[in-house]
Amino acid sequence: METFPVVNMEKLNGEERSATLKLINDACKNWGFFEIVNHGISTELLDTVERMTKGHYKKCMEERFKEMVASKGLEAVQNEINDLDWESTFHLRHLPESNISNIPDLQDEYRKVMKEFAKEIEKLAEDILDILCENLGLEKGYLKKVFYGSKGPTFGTKVSNYPPCPKPDLIKGLRAHTDAGGVILLFQDDKVSGLQLLKDGNWIDVPPMHHSIVINLGDQLEVITNGRYKSVMHRVIAQTDGTRMSIASFYNPGSDAVIYPAPVLVNKDEEKNNTYPKFVFEDYMELYTRVKFQAKEPRFEAMKTIDTVKVGPIATV
Known about the structure:
Blueprint: E1 6-8, H1 17-30, E2 33-37, H2 43-72, E3 88-95, H3 108-136, H4 142-148, E4 154-162, E5 174-177, E6 183-188, E7 195-199, E8 202-205, E9 213-217, H5 219-224, E10 234-236, E11 244-252, E12 258-259, H6 268-273, E13 279-280, H7 281-291, H8 297-303
Parallel strand pairs: 1-2
Antiparallel strand pairs: 2-9, 3-4, 4-11, 5-10, 6-9, 6-11, 7-8, 7-10, 12-13
């Protein structure tokens, strides 16, 4: 059985840079996911984020989740539930404007820690994008520039907890989907598992690892790379024991960013076939929110019917 790709980012700075770049490239092509260690975010910060996130759930969200479960009778379901997920979440927006000060119930210290965490994740996301550029033969900064639009990228964090579930065979923690956006960076629980990705028709566990960050690619990167890299279906399986923490940060294009395959990655035959569309990210998101848990290919086809947008060259200076 294939081994889930784990990348030691420190090796990019030495003699093993070429092999490490190849490992990342292979992961992007064949998995759509990889896990990174020694990524430069301090373990002290990660430990604080985890402690405060779990404390916040216990104090402010656990009881509300139990009340929701009771009100919907979810503990007694007999048939598979397909219209909700067994998760307790809140969303932080960082860019273009932060909403952290507006989220209720967050302690001031937790807000401060999450702002610091977001800065570190934002920097790491941009480093990952430049690594992808290098592997793809794109100019450094190309992907960041494509994402920029007129106001900069959209960047936010979904903070989730997946409590113990009495019927994990009938209720998913999170139903299968691909992510709509750009690059996703996940800081997940290192003890309670549950995240799985679909590869070659099989669901494969994404291993929980202490202080690691899981990277996965969204639909926009599949389009920009003209299918060289793929967004991949993934899901969360609810567990009967233990609450799983998941902090997923989404570094996405700006709402008015124009998304289309990078010209250097399109050969003449592919240009004729027009496999991937050209569209404004906001239009894609409008469609995605309605059909998130369906296959991505019909979304790509649907975007081809929207009025074509004019595209100038991407400046990378």
